[in-house]
Prior knowledge:
Elements: E1 14-15, E2 22-27, E3 32-34, E4 36-39, E5 42-43, E6 46-50, E7 55-63, E8 82-88, E9 96-102, E10 117-122, E11 125-127, E12 134-136, E13 140-147, E14 153-156, E15 165-171, E16 187-188, E17 191-192, E18 198-208, E19 215-225, E20 229-235, E21 241-247, E22 254-255, E23 260-261, E24 266-270, E25 284-286, E26 289-291, H1 305-316, H2 335-346
Parallel strand pairs: 1-4, 15-24
Antiparallel strand pairs: 2-7, 3-6, 4-5, 6-9, 7-8, 9-13, 10-11, 10-14, 12-13, 15-20, 16-17, 18-19, 18-21, 21-22, 21-23, 25-26
The protein binds calcium ion (3 copies).
Amino acid sequence: xxxxxxxxxxxxxxxxxxxxxxxxxxxxxxxxxxxxxxxxxxxxxxxxxxxxxxxxxxxxxxxxxxxxxxxxxxxxxxxxxxxxxxxxxxxxxxxxxxxxxxxxxxxxxxxxxxxxxxxxxxxxxxxxxxxxxxxxxxxxxxxxxxxxxxxxxxxxxxxxxxxxxxxxxxxxxxxxxxxxxxxxxxxxxxxxxxxxxxxxxxxxxxxxxxxxxxxxxxxxxxxxxxxxxxxxxxxxxxxxxxxxxxxxxxxxxxxxxxxxxxxxxxxxxxxxxxxxxxxxxxxxxxxxxxxxxxxxxxxxxxxxxxxxxxxxxxxxxxxxxxxxxxxxxxxxxxxxxxxxxxxxxxxxxxxxxx
Length: 354
Ligand SMILES: [Ca+2]
Ligand SMILES: [Ca+2]
Ligand SMILES: [Ca+2]
């Protein structure tokens, strides 16, 4: 459209539920609001500042988000359920700050606003860029600067796109289960708790490399084999440096020594090869391997008397099975478990985090 837009607000705006878009001319370095929504009851405007060569822009917002921008399967969680189609009239020359606005009612399940990205579908893939802070409180706003190419945009977490994964090959040894060579298989009330070569389950999280080290992806429940290998499927768009955090039901939470470079099709990391593989050198050397400290039965990040109590109680009750108090994983709670807790409590063992 040409002319001046006036008298628009969250109740009076352009509903782009057809094929049309709102075109505003000569967008330059002052903010230009595109008052659009995908229905009469859902106002989700975009604002553009173009620090490059001024150009005319078109904006349309669609209900829903698809795995390949304007095609593919619907994204059903971890994102804002809208797609903003933004186009410049003359290709090239723009350097735009794009701000998108949404409401709580537009958020799909499990969406984490604190580790969200303003995603842009370009060159046949979603480009996430860095984590962006949000502002406002229903409606919320998020801005991404220095955008130079256009079309589908949305807001989501890095694992929003289903099936778009790559593998993180972790190797983890736990003091609790280590027998000097491999890890014993955790026992339940009727023998091996897990089938095949699986020793136990661990939980893996991917955290931002910079304060406040936000959770970027996960937690993933991962099978850890008796040889320590624990492959994890992580979101393929992870391309920056991230801390990898491993938790286990009765071991000390342990962070990678440094943020790992995820800019590869596959990533490998072995916690057991050197003490520096864990943040704060928080590993114990046993029979030539660096293992995670054990005995954090109540998972509060330290080994102390609060972990001794449940082991004492369950031991006095002759409890058996797949229990957190069964520190050494042999299916029985007894003095063998108390030894690990006692030793690490005496050593003031606790988790080390950046
Ligand atoms: Ca242009
Ligand atoms: Ca504890
Ligand atoms: Ca035991």
